[in-house]
Amino acid sequence: AKVSLTGIKPTGEPHLGNLIGAIRPALQLAEEYDSLYFIADYHALTSVRDPEELRHYTRSVAASWLAAGLDPRRTTFYVQSDVPEIFELNWVLSCMTGKGLMNRAHAYKAARDRNVEAGEDPDAGVNMGLYNYPILMAVDILIMESDVVPVGKDQVQHVEYAADIAGSFNHVYGDSYSFKIPKAIIPESGNGNTLPGLDGRKMSKSYDNTIPLFLPENQLKKLVRRIPTDSTPVEAPKDPDSSPVFQILEQFAPPSSADVVADTRKRLEAGGMGWGELKNVLFEVLLTELGPMRERYDELMKPGSDLDVVLDEGAQKARERASRVLSSVRKAIGVNR
Ligand code: TYM
């Protein structure tokens, strides 16, 4: 069967963007594909410096996947750092990757642009982990022989890089071993656009504008109230597609709430629905959908829950798979005695 793989990095509490961009589409794909989903903790190390935090977010991302319905009997579910084979292949593929490709990577370029704008040294605060980030991500994908990678739009370039890097390797060693060429799959909801956050920009941990998945009710309500709206009066017709509140509603709403979304759109367009009421609709849909997930999440976050057992078993399966590919690679490049 074809293989679906994706990862989330534990740099903060998992949020609606992660659910919509990655978790939901990935769980859907797990119905027909062989699936491998993981927590990219070594990717988080490019920015997280507090060991307690890294441990906490790793558990919290893992618990979120399971709460959202990941079935560990069907999906190989693991933590990246539990699979040392990844880091050996990381060196090999670093040697196959042009430096110019890394110079053009979005995340690195964005960091440089910010520095230049602030009048700083272009590389200020840029560590080699951030610079090499796309190579490690390529390894995550290639070492598991992935066919498809369900991700949000912001990660598409990285998957293309993985395909490029695989191509460079295959070009030289293809007679002995060839990596599969992976393809990104982006969610259909919102035309594949990234989910907006509390300030209307892309919802992202690094902008501190996220709606975390599992907040106490009153805090969730407060956050929903913070999403920006304009001053169009209640009676006036509104364009739902330019409202981040509506975009979040539309992309988040499960099929069972499709009627609510369609009705809300009509009422906004016709005039007569105010932003306050729209926010109440969003809040209710969030509560209904996230409530049951939260119960399972809270269970899993308790010390001694079966979270660690699940991840241990996943790591073992992931390592078996990775070491098969790694030995083929070692043989192909000539480091096996
Ligand atoms: P990360 O941790 O930033 O995000 C995890 C996933 O959530 C998606 N996402 C969004 N989708 C829609 N709207 C948003 N506002 C939004 N914010 C985040 C991301 O697109 C992503 O799919 N580099 C990756 C982690 C990673 C990985 C991999 C992914 C490491 N190795 C191998 C796939 C395959 C990252 O930082 O995602």
Structure description:
The structure is a single chain. Helix 3 packs across helix 12. This protein folds into two domains: 3-194 and 306-333, HUPs (Rossmann fold, 3-Layer(aba) Sandwich), CATH 3.40.50.620; 214-298, Orthogonal Bundle (Tyrosyl-Transfer RNA Synthetase), CATH 1.10.240.10. It is built from 13 helices and five strands. The protein has helices at residues 16-29, 41-44, 51-67, 85-94, 99-103, 106-117, 128-143, 156-173, 217-226, 244-252, 258-270, 275-301, 307-333; strands spanning 3-8, 34-39, 75-79, 148-150, 183-185. The protein is 54% helix and 7% strand. It is mainly α. The radius of gyration is 21 Å and the shape is globular. Strand 1, helix 1 (16-29) and strand 2 form a beta-alpha-beta unit. The protein binds tryptophanyl-5'AMP (TYM). Tryptophanyl-5'AMP binds at residues 6-9, 17-18, 20-22, 40, 43, 137, 140-141, 149, 151-152, 154-155, 158, 194-195, 202-204. This is Tryptophan--tRNA ligase.
SSE blueprint:
Layout: E1 3-8, H1 16-29, E2 34-39, H2 41-44, H3 51-67, E3 75-79, H4 85-94, H5 99-103, H6 106-117, H7 128-143, E4 148-150, H8 156-173, E5 183-185, H9 217-226, H10 244-252, H11 258-270, H12 275-301, H13 307-333
Parallel strand pairs: 1-2, 2-3, 4-5
Helix pairs in contact: 3-12, 4-7, 4-13, 7-8, 9-12, 10-12
GO molecular function: tryptophan-tRNA ligase activity
Binding site for L-tryptophan: 140
Protein name: Tryptophan--tRNA ligase
